[in-house]
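Deliverable D5.2: sample structural annotation.
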Amino acid sequence: EFIPKCRTCRRQAREQSGQGDHHEGLSSDEELTPTEVGEFQKSRDNVLEDSRKIFEDVHADFCDIRKILLKFQEWKEKFPDTYCDAYISFCLPKLLNPLIRVQLISWNPLEQNFTELEEMPWFRAIEEFSDAENVSESK
């Protein structure tokens, strides 16, 4: 079995220093020091805290995806001509994008207990809205 010389040297250095937490197959260059892990966690916590403040001063009707989609559904039912003329189906992704991105900031699919996208409230709201649109179009 061929093992590059640099890998052998790093393994020997780990064995001599008593570091037993290395997993074979992972590069020690990719391992983070405790200081780096702490800095990353602090930075992540700051981003998450800032993300909670983004919609603090926004009226609840305009920062909740379900409520926004309800307004569009009402518009479609009351004024179908203007709704179609406004090309709402093309506008909604751009309108909802910032709201969804804020909700996905803390989402990590690599974590063991992550939430599936299909289970997230924003996904279900969009799915219900799409189903309602399809039903009304079939009428």
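Annotation notes: The two ends are 69 Å apart (CA to CA). Residues 56-138 form one domain.
The annotation will be released with the project's public dataset once the embargo ends.
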